[in-house]
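Before relying on records like the one below, remember that each one covers exactly one chain. Contacts with other chains, cofactors or solvent are not represented anywhere in the record.
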Amino acid sequence: MIQDIGRHRFHNEYHPEARPAADSRILFYHGREIFVKCENDQICFLTFEEVSGAWPDSENEATYLFSIDGISYFIFRDWEESAFAPESVDQTEYVQAGEKHLLDLFPGYAWEKIERMRTVGPKEAAFAGVTGLQLYGWYQSRRFCPACGKHMVHSEKERMMHCPSCGQMEYPKICPAVIVAVTNGDRILLTKYAGRSFRNYALIAGFAEIGETLEETVEREVMEEVGLRVKNIRYYKSQPWSFTDTLLTGFFAEVDRDTHIQMDENELSVAKWCTREEVPEDDGVSLTREMMGVFKSGRQPR
């Protein structure tokens, strides 16, 4: 899966005193796009040494994210509003043309949709790219206090934004969700989402609601989406899925008696029982596809 980066070591502890070194990586995001150099499906990010040559005082703009193999990763949270442009460029004009300006400064780099991280290497770089997006999005959405509207500031001790005015504290957002492989003997329930660009087969999935256990989430989501009851719910594995700020938890479950599908057409466009031979191969990226592959091979937990 995307977080399985082999011998490489990911450390997500926050270090407020961290300062970028010459080889530190700087991640730039714009919406759901990431700034990378990509050649033959292999990506790399700008180093601090490269960025600091174009951005005076850039060390003070860097926010530490995490490290992989001792290499630190940073973001510039407000790069679109910074003085990253030459003095001759009007600030308002620069903010409007920020993406193009980075392209002009760093030939060979391009803005790529974040979903590209699912198919490029090296794996540790792709994982860094999507994980950085989750933190970048959190920082962008926590610039102002949700309680009183005043400016938030970063804690000097931990990864937390707090409001000096009312004392509100905000930590990174993680949304718990379930992935459910519903089986019926040698068949598995495969689905396709309704109204989304993602057209591949998937499994029943949904977010946990306040006050319910993950097992109750499994039962509710299966009932809501396909009208089936399940039994023998077994935990399989979890996965951080930074594309949607989610912590996915995978379960296998067996259909309980009635196998007639009553599909929620607002959520799904397809829901059907498939044999092992009809299940797609594992793409090595997502928990969903791994669980489908586990069933295909007959290795699901019992």
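Helices lie at 48-52, 91-96, 98-105, 123-141, 214-226, 287-296.
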